[in-house]
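Re: beginner question about structure tokens

> Can someone show what the tokenized structure looks like for a real chain? I only ever see the sequence side.

Sure, here's an example I had lying around. Input first:
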Amino acid sequence: MTDGNTARQPLWVTAALLGVSAVLIVVFVLLGNWQVRRLVWKQELIAAVDARAFGEPAGVPTPFDPHQHAYLRASVDGRLLDQPAVLVKAVTGSGPGYWVMSPIKTDRGVLWVNRGYVPAEVQNPADWSPLSLPITGLLRPGVSGGTLLERNDPAAGRWVSRDPMAMSKALNLGPTLPYFIDADHQGASGTWPRGGLTVVRFRNPHLAYALTWYAMAALFAAALAYLIWSGRVARRL
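And the corresponding structure tokens:
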């Protein structure tokens, strides 16, 4: 006849499972709490950006703080420089193409204007509507270097990110502001470049993430309770 004690789980295994489950419960709760804090931060960010982007146009701030002034709706005047536009690779809801970047001279330095999107077959400036001043749009911090997959190549005239400082350096334009302005669309509705395409939308999945972590904590808590219960039952046998 088999001894009932031999069927019992070793005490150290039970203790290890209890310890691991307890640690995981704490970790999952902490991760859920972190996602709740991220949720509050993201909601505040969305509210702040909405207030900046859809309010009355302001002046250009000095100094520019990307945390406070990104997507600020602003109006700026200046003088259009006699420089060819820089085409920056773009992928939009209208398909692949280019952002048309043109520099203007302001009393604070050179400011690059993103006039908008053109498809690959509309690269000829003769097909574009003229740029008129003053310009109203959204301020955006420059993106230096390039993207995760591609790098800017100023010597070859190949641009994949809107980097005002590097573009001015390549054209010897002098002191340049470290941000650009996404201009509203100018001209008739069907003309190019197509301005006003800035996407002011942020993903906010933090509530779903928080609920996922809390659910995992609850599952491990249930498993922990089962281990404790089954251990007591085994000791009674």
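Each token stands for a local structural state, so reading them left to right follows the chain. The first strand starts at residue 73 and ends at 76.
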